[in-house]
Amino acid sequence: MAKVAFIGLGVMGYPMAGHLKVRGGHEVTVYNRTAAKAERWATEFGGRAAATPAEAARGQDFVFACVGNDDDLRSVTTGKDGAFEAIGSGAVFIDNTTASAEVARELYAAAREKGAHFIDAPVSGGQAGAENGVLTVMCGGDTEAFDRAKPVIEAYARMVGLMGPAGAGQLTKMINQICIAGLVQGLAEGIHFGKKAGLDIEKVIEVISKGAAGSWQMENRHKTMNAGKYDFGFAVDWMRKDLDIVLAEARRNGAKLPVTALVDQFYAEVQTLGGSRWDTSSLLARLEK
Ligand SMILES: NC(=O)c1ccc[n+]([C@@H]2O[C@H](COP(=O)([O-])OP(=O)(O)OC[C@H]3O[C@@H](n4cnc5c(N)ncnc54)[C@H](OP(=O)(O)O)[C@@H]3O)[C@@H](O)[C@H]2O)c1
After folding, report:
1. In what residue span(s) does the 6-phosphogluconate dehydrogenase NADP-binding domain sit (predicted)?
2. What is the span of the domain harbouring residue 137?
3. Is residue 195 among the annotated active site residues?
4. Positions in the chain whose pLDDT score sits under 70
5. Does 24 share its domain with 134?
6. CB of 234 closer than 6 A to ligand 1?
């Protein structure tokens, strides 16, 4: 049992912190910008709610965060009353936010200056993965800190891997998003074509999902896509934030991502259709408008 803090109780963080308490059996202190959510969590799970990230981080063995983007992450770490004001020497900060590799390297260096450790640890598996505690966690950082953190992270994960030094977890998550972008557009075009051809989409997917075209997106999203339902899941706004990070990194490392850049623009069109909070499978809505 370890002393653990969790900063950011959103769609992902709230259940993840819950698993650290219930499944991991750890002593958990939470912080959330909107304090009412932290109070609700503390009542539901029997932990402690702190008033600032610094207060949450003081005296902990592990400090987790899952906030929105690079700036949000800086604000809860190196910002005023941020966790790095109070994090102890030897403690490990585990960041589950999807952010840039650059901010991961920056915070790794800032943590080391304090004698603490930093692991970038973005996740895949969505809201359902967080609620069921079966996320995939892609880590970057030092082996020794990772080895200590891994059994704690496993409270909310099915797969936890160290991909390389600081930033490597975020780079791996970028590959995950590159693969998803092209794949979902392909799936949207397939369903769109099938409807135009007058085929029974359910029947089509039942058969082709068992062949070489099968994917998690096909299995889990075809029904709702076919029904034109998108008010759930991983929001288009979040996907555009992630693709922005991906395309900036590609400009730096010279990778050619023509399909990813195109699909990013398709998502921009979905936003103009009012789909900012729709699931990423809403690429089909754009084809059907
Ligand atoms: N949702 C998914 O399916 C999914 C899947 C994989 C990865 N992710 C990634 O996980 C991260 C969190 O996603 P989410 O869906 O949990 O988002 P969310 O529901 O919007 O929650 C964001 C959390 O961050 C806090 N926050 C945001 N900006 C802050 C700031 N400047 N200072 C302090 N706290 C701040 C929010 O506090 P308030 O409660 O006060 O707003 C909230 O607790 C994102 O990087 C996202 O890309 C999400």
Report:
1. 3-162
2. 3-164
3. no
4. none
5. yes
6. yes
